[in-house]
Amino acid sequence: MTDRSIKFEDLPEEYYALGGRGLTSTIVAKEVPPTCHPLGPSNKVVLAPGLVTGTKAPSSGRISVGGKSPLTGGIKEANAGTSFGQKVARLRIAAIVVEGKAEDNDKYLLKINKDGAELLNANKWLGKGLYEAYKDLYNEFGKNVGICGVGIAAELLSANSGLCFNDIDGLPSRYAGRGGLGAVMYSRGLKFIIVDDTDAPGVEIKNEELFNQGIRKLREALTTHDVTKPGGALNSYGTDVLINIINEAGGLPQKNFSAGQSDQAAMVSGEKKAEEIKKRGGAGQRPHACHPGCVIQCSEVWVDPNGENPVGVLEYESTWALGPNCGIYDLDIIGELNRQCNDLGLDTIECGDTIAVAMEGGVLDFGDGQKAIELLEEVRNKTPLGRIIANGTEYTARAYGVWRVPTVKGQGIPAYDPRAIKGIGVTYATTPMGADHTAGYCIATEIMGVGGTADPRDVKKSDLSRNLQLATAAVDASGYCLFIAFAILDIPSGLEGVVESINGVYGTDLKVEDVAKIGQQILDTELNFNKAAGFTKAHDRLPEFMVLEPLPPTNEVFNVSEEELDKVF
Amino acid sequence: MTDRSIKFEDLPEEYYALGGRGLTSTIVAKEVPPTCHPLGPSNKVVLAPGLVTGTKAPSSGRISVGGKSPLTGGIKEANAGTSFGQKVARLRIAAIVVEGKAEDNDKYLLKINKDGAELLNANKWLGKGLYEAYKDLYNEFGKNVGICGVGIAAELLSANSGLCFNDIDGLPSRYAGRGGLGAVMYSRGLKFIIVDDTDAPGVEIKNEELFNQGIRKLREALTTHDVTKPGGALNSYGTDVLINIINEAGGLPQKNFSAGQSDQAAMVSGEKKAEEIKKRGGAGQRPHACHPGCVIQCSEVWVDPNGENPVGVLEYESTWALGPNCGIYDLDIIGELNRQCNDLGLDTIECGDTIAVAMEGGVLDFGDGQKAIELLEEVRNKTPLGRIIANGTEYTARAYGVWRVPTVKGQGIPAYDPRAIKGIGVTYATTPMGADHTAGYCIATEIMGVGGTADPRDVKKSDLSRNLQLATAAVDASGYCLFIAFAILDIPSGLEGVVESINGVYGTDLKVEDVAKIGQQILDTELNFNKAAGFTKAHDRLPEFMVLEPLPPTNEVFNVSEEELDKVF
């Protein structure tokens, strides 16, 4: 971006058969100095579709985004399911690397199609919400494009600004949201990436037969497993099915992590949401996929009471963050807050944690949904208060002197209280990503009985967390949705199918046993980056208040020992 | 403070002949968990007069304040010269430890005299500026008290809130300012400490003869050395004498460290200031000491054009921070900004760095003194913008997306650009305190030719910085002002005198050679705390922009190697 030039480069041989998180973390670790300033000239944003993204493999439409995070100060990978990644892959682009900084004040749009790429001026979209901007962009560039963009939060260069991708209806609702990489992209001078895969060559598949065999096995597993099958939990209620389940377990954080259960939780449950969506009709009719070719289809679309103005999906973590965590139990308010987040380019989890901390700090009352919506208007208006909010949980806590700060490595803790469910706490503490439930989703085993069972209160969780972190890193490289893990952890042929599908595309000879090794390689790369950036075991800790303060109703504290945490890596 | 109780405890034997920084850092390291939240229940504030504070030893009125810093996240010691420390010592109190957190919303005043101590309600002073509050407090508690207080910045629990002590005229101008310990004290529930030494027993001196011999030698050195003698540099012009000297060296940072020299610097020089003070008359007549018994007397008092409304001293670093670093070259505006800092409880260096970063971020223009004054009114009014500013340089940079952030370990870099003068940069990078010129003042040797000479641009400065850091830690424990170092580095009998004076008070048998050992012990304690808090060599670095960006007019970058930095400790 320094001289606004575009280069197509052959993929170095060493990067062959790396994809998604495997490729973004490798490039970031190689090219970004670990101690650089995240918004300075040395940082980069890397976008890489997964290994099988763009093929007809089921539920494989993920794209990873990497860079040094302004939120955590460490390496970051965040990924999203979107046709954008599929289109990039079909153009046979392994990764887009955005580097340098434009010296002028103009902002740019990168347009990519089969003929090449160009940078166009994007100034006219500055200050616009993304719902309107994406509509404009589809009008200008046609219906066959994928869009990646950053919003007003990134224009503020704020640490809670995500990269937004189009959903299947063209809405700005699919986010590589965590860790503030939107600000890194915007600080290069880049506002949008438009990709058009018309007449694209498609993903090269070295061994069609093996590939087809693999995806058959995987599809079979996905359509059989209770969690992922048609009419199963995710397909029927979306991820929000977890509200009642986690509430029942006493691990659904209320009002800035001051309790783990509420009798009002059912008002924002997946069941309630499905019922409302059905009643309201219109754009919200379920089931809905986040990208073409998904067989799980958990992305039901939330709409207003008239069945209009679709928001996109309300995920469990978003519903929790903007709902119970703020003392809000009204799906329409939560929907509106989620719409604001999508429109502004804010990660919903971080934003919900932030609003709750602002509530604890006295900026507004717990439960005051209207004030919460107004708070996000401050971001839109780029006021000082908006700048505070857009910089996330820890930042907002400091502005208002709040010491109960639910973060690890500066990133807001998601929707599962680690005092009631210890394994997920081990993941929050030890993943190089900062508090991230997706990095090693112990909930699967501790609560859902997937991949075995484990008592949520058992404090020996280093092995469980490590194993899941390794598997997750590999899945995040594959381009498959992490939700395939529910099926392949329980159905061995599904896992075989995944490996065969990758071997089919790349002509490689990976074994099932190699999955953990691939994961370990990726994690080693990330952990080494963080170590060089200044992270130590002292950063692999949960916030002090979770160690000191019992969580009603279980009245558990986070009592996993530091030794157990340090055994993970 | 949890139950608002006060205990007098005998000094444990292991703490005997520890004082000042030696005692604060030892207690903090022993009693505060390194990974605790600085504003949470586990942090403490420790105030300890130096080893000879309260005696008639010349220039020995320092008091140290310690705790875990909300600004750096590491251990912090900040000290000030004030009669407050002398009074505490004369009551034979080795340290005041403020611990726990009041659960109620009331704020308290700790009153100490020869009969004991009590906690009084301090709510009536909340929201008041400290100039007015100190006047009230002297009216209420009498002229013979020393006052320690925290201001509106601490009421915001902000990371740039210092502990303020009375000067010799009772003004709130003597600060243990750096690192945000004001917020730590206020978060315990404590707003003021009033100490009255009427009929105090005084400091016990074990060997009067040796003590008297020691202070004679020291006084002789102080009154002989060019820097410290009556009519010498400090006595004639105050610390501000450095403006012209550092500007000449190309190391006086201008406009957020974008140049190292300005032809306007002379307008705010010590010479110019002395001339103005003389012309204006009134309260500002020089020379002025910061505490009774100082022979250096560098604290000339700044007044308004009518010779009224005394601010207190304008130190070199304050003048620079609020002046040239903001593109401001008007002593009256700088004086007003310094008054605001004193009144609000903000550290001047951090505040000047903050305003300059806000200027770079477009909040106001470089050079706009009026707007700068208004910006500090935002702190007084507790607005969101005020909360941003009160949280310091790095925090403000993040609010406005500024990547040229002059901080180390989160603390703003003081008045000497390390690109033009490398040794001070080695100190900024490696001291456990975050960027702190006083921690190992290489300027003495590099610019002033004290303790030998060194080429400012020579990059081999690890030995110089280490030696000065060790000596400084020992001086900070002694209770002597750091400025005695100018004399005792050049005059061996002065150093002997210092050691004899300590042996005289404590009946100890320290040798001159032990000074470095004492310093090493203190630094080891601090470095170990920081290591446990999560600091690594990656934090011992200057900001990226100083490595990348040449500084006019020398066009030097900070080119001390990481190996050289890592050789310090």
What would you note in describing this structure?
The structure is a homodimer of 569-residue chains. In chain A, strand 11 (407-408) and strand 12 (411-412) form a beta hairpin. By secondary structure, chain A is an alpha+beta fold. In chain A, 39% of the residues lie in helices and 10% in strands. The first copy, chain A, has helices at residues 20-31, 83-90, 130-141, 152-155, 181-188, 208-222, 233-237, 242-248, 270-280, 316-322, 331-344, 348-360, 369-380, 384-390, 393-399, 422-430, 443-446, 462-478, 484-490, 492-506, 514-533, 544-548, 562-566; strands spanning 45-49, 62-68, 75-81, 96-98, 108-113, 116-121, 145-149, 163-166, 172-176, 190-196, 407-408, 411-412. The mean pLDDT of chain A is 97. Chain A is built from 23 helices and twelve strands. Chains A and B meet through helix 14, helix 15, helix 21 and helix 22 of A and helix 14, helix 15, helix 21 and helix 22 of B.
